């Protein structure tokens, strides 16, 4: 019997002893020798741990409400203060690393099985091969984006990335070398180019939980945007959004008609039937609690100060509206009480999986949209700004604003530039949505049309991705500095804590300790 070690890649990297494993299948599946088995097996090629908690709480989307707030633990303290994470949690870096490599190993096993049957064309499994390649590329993309410095042509060839696994692990105690960021991006590019022509929607029961066509195009949009290939980003966004993107976006006008109940709106937010949700993933996650009407981890919150000065309400103010309820179809929701200051959009549901209904124990879970048309539209606008196609970018910006705002979107580039230029650059005790940009690629000078429009689209992306962990990626791509602070009892900044500088080593979140203890190269500190 062939050794099928689809999870050993992660287990070996985590320094788990493999001595007790025998030369048998690691689960009850039979060998992958036909199309149906491979299709079923590919459901294992998606991660069950989300990056959102680590990246959202690492970003500038949360403030510290003081150590007297009891709603925190050592794990979230380490995340917030950009420390090496040594505490355990379902959403810790060890689980993110391990589950991502398990998903990669499953994709590689499917790829090998298809090739053993004569290749995708002879086996009639081009769509299955495309899904496996896309899943492999996506998981590596998350790993390199979290555990390495952001891609830059200037530094990618020397920055340590992660190990790009191209085949199932065949040894019980292998040694791994880190590929550079440039090498990882090159491998992802090759996987995408091989997969995109053959991705299909045909064999999925619920396409939104797989890499369907539009999800693949949205992933390509994000990847090439991060890869500094702006033309390619626009190309794949066009393929994703078609000629009428308005019809594919989240219908915020309809959301405004729903019962004003967080469970109702959060369940709607992740509805697989919505055109906007392209790839939905499930995770063992407490994000629905952290960014819901609960005190979980409320020491670190997206509170009223951030909302008023940097994010959702600030956007409404910049565009001339005194209150967010005057601007948004579905405004932000405020929760204030002792040790609680949250201003949030209702997005991710809090779900619970009972392992023992009698004892009432189990796991926190959520479902999250990893890829959406709304974000793909803003990513296309960003790419167009970087190409200096300002009018075309503003068209996309107006589509997004017109969809989320009951006042519509009809702004000119000049109006946006003027509004942004009027803002001061943010300071730790005097916040503004406008923060100095220090990307690894060239952009216009401060106050230039390009820099001003980039400031605005990054704000829109911050609002669109709020609570989903995506802001951290833009912070690193643009070298945005974060100044940590404590919010006082009066709701205003009280004291200064720390600063994440440009190219700070802590931007590359530390490789899990069990992995480095096994000899894997850690990130420098």
Describe this structure in a few short sentences.
With 525 residues, this protein is mainly alpha-helical. Helix content is 41%, strand content 10%.
Helices and strands, with pairings:
Layout: H1 8-13, H2 35-41, H3 52-58, E1 63-64, H4 74-80, H5 93-116, H6 120-123, H7 126-147, H8 181-195, H9 213-226, H10 230-241, H11 252-255, H12 262-269, E2 277-284, H13 287-290, E3 300-301, H14 304-309, H15 312-318, H16 324-327, E4 333-337, E5 340-344, E6 351-356, E7 361-372, H17 373-386, H18 390-404, H19 413-421, H20 449-464, H21 471-477, E8 482-487, E9 493-500, H22 513-517
Antiparallel strand pairs: 1-3, 2-7, 4-5, 6-7, 8-9
């Amino acid at each position: 019997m062939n050794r099928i070690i689809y999870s050993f890649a992660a287990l070996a990297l985590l320094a788990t002893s493999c001595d007790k494993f025998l030369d048998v299948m690691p689960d009850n599946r039979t060998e992958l020798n036909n199309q149906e088995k491979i299709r079923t097996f590919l459901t294992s090629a998606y991660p069950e741990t989300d990056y959102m908690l680590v990246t959202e709480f690492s970003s500038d989307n949360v403030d510290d409400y003081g150590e007297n707030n009891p709603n925190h633990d050592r794990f979230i303290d380490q995340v917030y203060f950009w420390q090496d994470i040594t505490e355990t949690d379902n959403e810790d870096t060890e689980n993110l690393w391990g589950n991502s490599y398990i998903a990669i190993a499953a994709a590689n096993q499917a790829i090998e099985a298809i090739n053993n049957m004569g290749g995708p064309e002879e086996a009639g499994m081009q769509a299955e091969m495309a899904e496996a390649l896309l899943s492999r590329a996506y998981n590596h993309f998350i790993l390199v984006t979290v555990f390495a410095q952001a891609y830059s042509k200037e530094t990618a060839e020397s920055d340590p990335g992660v190990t790009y696994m191209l085949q199932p692990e065949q040894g019980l105690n292998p040694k791994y070398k880190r590929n550079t960021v440039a090498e990882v991006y090159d491998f992802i590019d090759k996987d995408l180019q091989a997969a995109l022509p053959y991705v299909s929607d045909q064999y999925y029961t619920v396409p939104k939980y797989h890499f369907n066509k539009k999800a693949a195009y949205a992933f390509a949009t994000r990847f090439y945007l991060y890869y500094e290939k702006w033309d390619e980003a626009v190309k794949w966004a066009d393929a994703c959004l078609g000629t009428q993107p308005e019809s594919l976006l989240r219908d915020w006008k309809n959301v405004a008609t729903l019962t004003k109940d967080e469970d109702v709106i959060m369940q709607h937010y992740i509805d697989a039937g919505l055109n906007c949700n392209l790839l939905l993933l499930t995770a063992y996650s407490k994000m629905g609690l952290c960014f819901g009407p609960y005190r979980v981890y409320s020491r670190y919150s997206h509170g009223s100060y951030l909302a008023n000065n940097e994010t959702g309400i600030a956007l409404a103010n910049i565009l001339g509206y005194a209150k967010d309820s005057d601007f948004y179809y579905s405004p932000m929701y405020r929760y204030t009480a002792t040790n609680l200051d949250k201003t949030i959009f209702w997005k991710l549901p809090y779900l619970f999986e009972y392992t023992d209904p009698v004892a009432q124990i189990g796991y926190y879970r959520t479902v999250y949209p990893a890829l959406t048309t709304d974000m793909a539209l803003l990513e296309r606008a960003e790419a167009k700004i970087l190409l200096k196609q300002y009018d075309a970018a503003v068209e996309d910006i107006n589509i997004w604003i017109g969809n989320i705002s009951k006042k519509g979107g009809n702004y000119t580039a000049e109006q946006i530039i003027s509004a942004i230029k009027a803002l001061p650059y943010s300071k730790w005790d005097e916040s503004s949505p406008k923060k100095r940009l220090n990307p690894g690629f060239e952009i216009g000078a401060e106050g230039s049309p390009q820099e001003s429009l980039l400031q605005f689209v990054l704000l829109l992306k911050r609002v669109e991705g709020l609570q989903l962990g995506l802001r951290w990626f833009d912070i690193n791509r643009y070298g945005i500095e974060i100044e940590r602070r404590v919010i006082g009892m009066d709701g205003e900044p009280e004291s200064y804590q720390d600063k994440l500088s440009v190219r700070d080593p802590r931007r590359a979140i530390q490789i899990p300790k069990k992995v480095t203890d096994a000899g894997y190269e850690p990130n420098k500190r």
